[in-house]
Amino acid sequence: MQSRYESASELCLQALREAPGAPEFLLLLALSDEGRGDVRGARSRLESALVGSPNKVECRYQLGRLLLMDGHVAGAREQFHQVLHQDYNHAPSYTALARLDHADGQLTLSLERLRTALRADPEHVPALTTLASVLLDQGELESAREEASQAIHIAPEEPSAHLALGRVLLAQGYLSFAEQCLANAADLDPNNPRVHLAMAMLLQKLGRHGDALKALAAAERTGAAGPTLLRARALSFHRIGELSSARAAHDQLIGSAATTTEQLLEYVDILVSLGDRQGLVGLPERIHTDEPAFDVWVKSRLALVDGALQVAVDMLRSTFDLAGPDLASRAGLLLAETLLRQDKTEDGLQQLELLSPTVGQRPELAQPIARLAYGAGALEFAVSILEPVVDHAALDEHAQALAAAMLSDLYDKSGRYEKAAVLFKRSAWQATYLGQAQSSEDAGDAGQGAFATAPASAGCDDSRRPVFIAGWPCSGRDLVLVALSRSGLRPLPLADWPMRRQQLGLSSERAVQENLNDTELHLRRRRYFRGLAGNRDVLESGVVHPRDLPLLARLFPGSAVVLPRAEERYAALQWRLFGYRQVPTMREFWRQEQLQLEVMRPHLPVAFVDLPLAELLNDSEEVLSKLFERLRLPWDSVINQSIQEIIALRGYRPPMHHSNYPDEAL
Question: What's the predicted TM-score (pTM) here?
């Protein structure tokens, strides 16, 4: 690209030697200078052109645009006004001035200029996308959508049009359509930080905070900075549990004029989660807020950190006469939770009932109220809180799906299976989980070919053996992982599993590599075990898929692979209750993986350990103790007590619970 600008510059210079001062060539030369990154040089060219041809409108408009790029807003405004004095129908100048008005908060004036621009040129896409943005800020979402859609109709390859429509759809709550628009914009203009920021906001609404952080990193890499980026980063770090990183982002925001009450309350939550008592003590003096009850709120959280529940209750009650609506609702929820922790169930439920009338105006309160109510044994009250918000217009499609998922779960627990089934297809909020399926023929070839270049009895030069766990969500894999992590095995961090996959060579399209020699296998094992002292066997926390097994068997012959198994219809019910999308597709991939396993097993020198989920749920101690015996691990009945708690916490239903539903509902 750089060489193209240099070639263009050379051609323009040749032309200027023949026609010195020609504004057309100076304009082209200025645009070439800009393309090479020399904005000031480009400005100088345009100023020279205007000395000889002051009425050259395009030169003056481009000069205004470049002044704006350099931060000279007043000079840019002057140039755009001069353009309009010379050409009253110059749509780009009206649009540029409208954007400046929009940035200054003068929405009415901005709208007037944009309407004038579109009268001059009804197909001027920058005016349409800017108009959509201004209408969005005014809350006129349908009108904004019309303008953005018109922009895409006129210029389907223009990234700003897709960005504009994506932002509008995001505001309207049409998240899947918004995601597609923003993905289109990112494909067309990958270096636009506004696209990546908008995508991050959407991913946060979807609860995909790990992906949101990747989008925020892309935004920063392409030039984004400031409070918006920091606020978004703090939120996503908090949601994925990286509290130190969340705090670091908030520390940069605290004291900023842009810090809102909601952000301050989020910061308090982080300090509480980190156990940073000292940070809480000094917080009210460090910040300025218009929330009059903030000091009392911080003191109530300190009391809870210190275990002084009654002191916290008294302080929380005192906030209601002072607090604004955001803090008042939080204080009400925390008061109810604290009363329930004190085993004052009646008082806690009474507090939740006092909060329930606010759900109509603040539907986001429905789920936390319902969760506390159900935990206190008031299932019918929880249902009554959730039922009105499933279709609440103020909630976007993702929030409605979350409410539907929780309500379907409560219907199922109360035996109202028909009502639960009706909500299943509305409760899909989690991304579809799919294993790395391959055809059964490929699976058979992979299994048979895994040891084509090395005998199946080939030993492993490291005395340690990983224990691997396969399995899909709701198959019991999580229960096995928790049990084995308390067995004396060394659990490897789940967060580092992608790196370990790469070290082992599992990240390739086809994991089986038949030409690996002993040296390469040895190096991969060393990279995998790097940093682990001693000879303790390790527990691999990452999910292994059937297509991984041939290479893992080459690397670790004799290792154990635990295979938790759930009956298909039972798994499908659990997936519905957990809110997965495209459950029929998941079922098809699940069947493929079961077939692959059966084809591979006879050919692989690893110890497969089958673990039927139904048996685990019926008698977890017997099943797990046998598993431990098979793996030559010491068994402790305390482990079983923990597993029983997790079975209830994770929402596992009894083994034949799926028989309450017809197959078409699942």
Answer: 0.76
